[in-house]
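User: Predict structure, ligand biotin.
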Amino acid sequence: MKFSTNLLGKNFHHLPTVDSTQNFLKNLLKTNQAPIGTLILADHQQTGKGTQGRSWFSLPNPQLMFSLLIKPHLAPQKLPLINILCGILMAKSLEEFNVHAMIKWPNDVYIDGKKVGGILSELTDGKIVLGVGINVEATSKDFPAELEHIATAVSLHAPNPVDRHELLNQFLIRLEEALEWKPDDLISFCQREFEKRWIYRGEKIQILQDSRILQGISHHITSSGALELITDTGVEKIIGGTISPLL
Ligand code: BTN
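Assistant: Predicted complex:
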């Protein structure tokens, strides 16, 4: 498989099955076998990892599930911005296929109110092991009962078939370009594009954190990728938690 990039995906492993592409890439990294840009693509994962210790469900057909080693020109505390950047770039890549995707802060990609994919970035030794999972080809029957009403696949919304390799290629082209930008340009791109695609823009939301529940309205993110929530008592910078709409 060829990608239209110079660095990302030059060292490429396509695996029919693996426990998790994240683990596979981290093991390569430990043994000095993973230069920046190393890409691991899997057709199936046995124990795919999601954020917050959750698992990532493997659908019956091969989907887009990959891990990529990157080294952005950003301070480590701006890592959340990378999730947002990748969500935006995936949404832009999907636009090439006439599919309109949105972002659910901090790391989910949504189509029509349902999750179509997610981003997991893990910092190792100043480098980021970026994991992306997108459901490309599925019917609603392919999802287990607990996901049926909250998850979706690109094929359920696209006017024409979407080739997962071409979707990956589109994403890599955009990411390779974005990683060359100066930090300030990358930050303003993320802030601007996030505002266009944030699923709860202008809506009242609730954020569930370990010891508290916050309510408010949010329009944008800070330069570190934190969500700015306007509450009755002031502006809170949110760096984690589970968001839901307040009906
Ligand atoms: C999330 O929404 O919780 C993030 C999901 C990330 C899933 C991808 S699939 C490829 C890579 N390998 C993994 O084990 N996880 C990520």
